[in-house]
Amino acid sequence: MKWKDGRRSDNVEDQRGFGVRQGAIGGGIGILAILVIGLLTGADPSTLISMIAGQSSSSVDSTPVVLTAAQNESADFVSVVLADTEDTWTTIFTEKGMVYTKPKLVMFTGQVDSACGSAESAMGPFYCPNDQKVYIDLSFYQELKDQLGAPGDFAQAYVIAHEVGHHVQNLLGTSAKVQTLESQSNEVTANKYSVMLELQADCYAGVWANRTEASQHFLEPGDIEEAINAAQKIGDDALEKQTQGYVVPDSFTHGTSAQRMKWLNAGMVSGDMNSCDTFNATVL
Fold first, then answer.
1. What is the pTM assigned to this prediction?
2. Within a 10 A sphere around the Cβ of 182, how many other Cβ atoms?
3. For the chain, which residues make up each domain, given as ranges?
4. pLDDT tens per residue across span 77-125
5. Is beta strand 117-120 parallel, antiparallel or unpaired with respect to 126-128?
């Protein structure tokens, strides 16, 4: 992925530099288990954040963290990807006669306070609609590579683009409608609405990739495969099988590997938001 000559976003808040003393997470729930329900979340972040905060025994460490050159390069990369999403979605919204409000992106270390509550890096990147910010601990990228088997810079870009996809849903009112439907439904039905929301965010990430490639030609050989592989590795069925050895379809909140690959690819092929109607799709 060619990114080093790209524009840097002015909407990045760097809260790194202070760590967290990691304590045990109660109930025997590990990072990957939490990722099953929190990875790339957007459906109801406040609920997940509260769960993490309640189970954690971590505490803030006021000792400054010395950031490495690699960590700073990763932050630079995130800033470029965010700028790309700003340019692409501004163009798409303008084409539709709308105004795109740019989200903020907060980089943090260990734990962070958001308008949706306090969160730890264990829950993975998330979007908070209450303050229109994307939150990410960049150490997640190492977990994405080492624990989930999804390396590559374009896989990392997909993570950001997915969360920005939730911001797009928030601006369009989709997130609020889904939250209302979820509140009126039983758990199984609510999970299905969550899956539709998440798959649409995947599709929007694909739309961003398509439109950005058309204007900037930033993709390199293997990039598309990196993103598709990441979508496969973070499917609910893949994560549940990895963490507990079996899958429970009614518990899915983000979609299966096949579904996530399908909808990411749909956006990448079409470059059209209209191809992302996961709510009326006959077959997810």
1. 0.83
2. 19
3. 12-276
4. 999 999 999 999 999 999 999 999 999 999 999 889 999 998 888 888 9
5. unpaired
